[in-house]
Amino acid sequence: MARTGTVALQPIRLELADIALNADLSLPPEAHGLVVFAHGSGSSRHSSRNRAVAEVMQRARIATLLLDLLTEQEERIDVRTAELRFDIPLLADRVVATIDWVQTQPSLSPLRLGLFGASTGAAAALMAAASRPTIVGAVVSRGGRPDLAEAALDAVTAPTLLVVGGRDDVVINLNQQAFDRLRGPKALEIVPGATHLFAEPGALEEVARLATDWFVRHLTMRSEP
Which of 6, 42, 70, 106 has the greatest CB tally within 10 Å of its CB? Predict the structure, then answer.
């Protein structure tokens, strides 16, 4: 078992209906929420950017599940063809299956659940939020393509934060259009001077702060029946 900061990182394998997906779970003591990370095009649970954001959440006592949306065989195919990373319905189905898996885990199911999506993973997260409206408590998109969620955007009621880099002009426009269609509580934050990957000094730290604040605000322990 590895450690990220002060929180143990546990590699796990999610046995879903017809596939198995790799993931890394970090569960802080007395966690008051769980965020599932839906990675973007060509990325995986090893994304250094998402791991950095996850560590900030963990320090705020939010559990994180960094998930590979493709199987190992699919990843090998996608490296050659880049076809699966843009199959948003497929990726969204994987996120939904993961949400359902979480509900079967005694240590995780009491936690209010959030979704963090990057790039194309943001569209998958939003489609999943529309599919599981009573379970998903909040969504954050980092440099995302929420427009790719298409009709599902109109059914998203979970509090949603869209974070975009100030120099990512095309994506800003797409996020503004998507923002207007969201039905629940929402916010659009533009990080000044940042490009799509938030590689500029301090940009990713600002994303982590905004996302963590959003999840802390909207994720709380569920009431016991």
Answer: 70
Q: pLDDT tens digit string along 135-187?
A: 999 999 999 999 999 999 999 999 999 999 999 999 999 999 999 999 999 99
Q: How far is CA 148 from the centre of its chain?
A: 15
Q: Distance of CA 105 to CAs 14, 21, 109, Å? A: 11, 16, 6
Q: Write out the two tokens for 106.
A: 């005694």
C-alpha dihedral, 96 to 101 to 103 to 107, nearest 10°: -140
Residue-number span of the structural domain to which 22 is assigned: 2-218
Q: Which amino acid is at 135?
A: I
Give the 3-state secondary structure of residue 139: strand
Structural domain contains residue 224? no
3-class state of residue 113 by DSSP? strand
Q: Record the pTM.
A: 0.91
Where residue 110 sits, what CATH number does that domain have? 3.40.50.1820
Phi, psi of 198 (to 5 degrees): 55, 40
How many separate domains does the chain show? 1
Residue-wise DSSP of 9-44: EEEEEEE-SS-EEEEEEE--TT---EEEEE--TT--
Contact in structure between 162 and 146 (CB atoms under 8 Å): yes
Is 225 part of a structural domain of the chain?
no
Distance CA 80, CA 86 (A): 14
Q: Is residue 88 part of a domain?
A: yes
